[in-house]
Amino acid sequence: xxxxxxxxxxxxxxxxxxxxxxxxxxxxxxxxxxxxxxxxxxxxxxxxxxxxxxxxxxxxxxxxxxxxxxxxxxxxxxxxxxxxxxxxxxxxxxxxxxxxxxxxxxxxxxxxxxxxxxxxxxxxxxxxxxxxxxxxxxxxxxxxxxxxxxxxxxxxxxxxxxxxxxxxxxxxxxxxxxxxxxxxxxxxxxxxxxxxxxxxxxxxxxxxxxxxxxxxxxxxxxxxxxxxxxxxxxxxxxxxxxxxxxxxxxxxxxxxxxxxxxxxxxxxxxxxxxxxxxxxxxxxxxxxxxxxxxxxxxxxxxxxxxxxxxxxxxxxxxxxxxxxxxxxxxxxxxxxxxxxxx
Length: 342
Prior knowledge:
Layout: H1 9-18, H2 27-34, H3 44-48, H4 51-62, H5 79-100, H6 111-121, H7 127-133, H8 137-151, H9 156-159, H10 167-180, H11 190-200, H12 216-229, H13 235-247, H14 250-262, H15 267-298, H16 303-329
Helix pairs in contact: 1-4, 2-5, 4-5, 4-12, 5-16, 6-15, 6-16, 7-14, 8-11, 10-15, 11-15, 12-16, 13-15, 13-16, 14-15
């Protein structure tokens, strides 16, 4: 994956620096990001839409996944780069806390029901309904372009939690992840199924092919998973995030599949969405009770973190859906750069 085009002064300096031999970051770059670590009165929604911030985080996080073409792998653990990432993360974390509000005090046995209530109360914009009933083929292609950043590595961020768990919670997470990875069969891996959808729509199916095209809010959705996944202290939030995805996935994916069929999508193009309808209905129960419930019982002090992770997931998904629907209603593209069909 090629290093992306910068979106501001900090990401420009970072991208330029990563092309060099690993070593201490320039003072100017460290000072610029250190300012993000200081408390500020910024609107949390504006932070989620901050292009420079989220490209910096995405570039740093990708070093822990598959890396960037032409970037020395030793940058992954360069202390000065980790310090820069920490300061950028602090601004993102403050915005997340402001978005979801106070975390309720929960007893471990209350966690599953609290997650179900959180999902039931979610009143996000009707993105899946709009896609099912009225999205054009160009808008569906845009939707898939946004989601490609996650779905082409689907499950990977949540897999970080496996070595950080034990007992029933670990077994439940592995059961979910096995399905995500197709039971070890390439043809059934969800990322592989998604490639079939993208290919039918004429999109580049390469890993990270559309990072330059998507806006900050799409990067933020992905950065949230990496933030939780790469920090052991956020392992409970990572589980809550996964539970929220599973609890709010089955019905929307049915609608996405129906929408693509309405637009002429053949079975191989809709299979990705159809697979999630049944699988995620099962995963919802496993994630809520066996994974999150068992984790909270084993680690009562982290029960609130599970709720926080789920709430953050739903909050960013609402902002993502709002962005797409607002842009489409205005007759404009939801992407930074229009991606034509190939």
